[in-house]
Amino acid sequence: MQDKPATAPRKAEQERRATTLDDRLEQNLAAARRYRGTIAFFKSHRRLLSSNEHRVDAGAALRRAEHRLAELTKTIRALRTTIHERDARQRAAMSPKAAICDVFGRYCRQAVAVAWCESRLTTTAQNGQYLGLFQMGSSERRLFGHGPAATDQAEAAHEYFVQSGRDWSPWGCKPGYAT
Fold it and tell me: Are 157 and 149 in contact (CB under 8 A)?
């Protein structure tokens, strides 16, 4: 019976330590960089692939690196999709205030004050054509977007805020510019 390579216990230990999706993604990205480096090495040292002395080992190493990189690329794509979905779920579940602060950053207090005045931080608030946290009109929603989640509405309002020169002139409610 043939023993497993010496790298198997080390790999198992690394996988045990990589408990989060983000850690697993980082480890896979690092491994992909190493395999890309191996492939680049052999592409720039073609003579190893054609020499009688090194051809077998060099060819096997190159094929192994290309195969492993292809596997890692699929894994990385799947991890990124899973992380994106997880982040989207977390952002969709945020309270209106948390979503506003997450999107507006240093303008958090001002944005929360405007949204409180406009909608009492209610994503379903409606006043004629004006909807949501920031009571954006139909033309603004068409330009900047809108959605049912507080994050969607905060992102649309932030884009409008940025496009208007980072002031609150488009809104009837003003924050009082408290910092």
Answer: no
> What is the topology classification, in CATH, of domain 96-163?
Lysozyme (1.10.530)
CA distances to 71, 88, 137, 156, 159 from 61, in Å? 15, 40, 61, 50, 50
CB 165 within 8 A of CB 141: no
Domain boundaries, the chain: 9-92, 96-163
pLDDT tens profile 58-68? 999 999 999 99
d(CA 82, CA 135): 33
Q: Which of 62, 178, 58 is nearest to 116 (CA)?
A: 178
pLDDT at 38 over 80: yes
Cβ atoms 72, 31 nearer than 8 A: yes
Q: Tell me the pTM.
A: 0.59
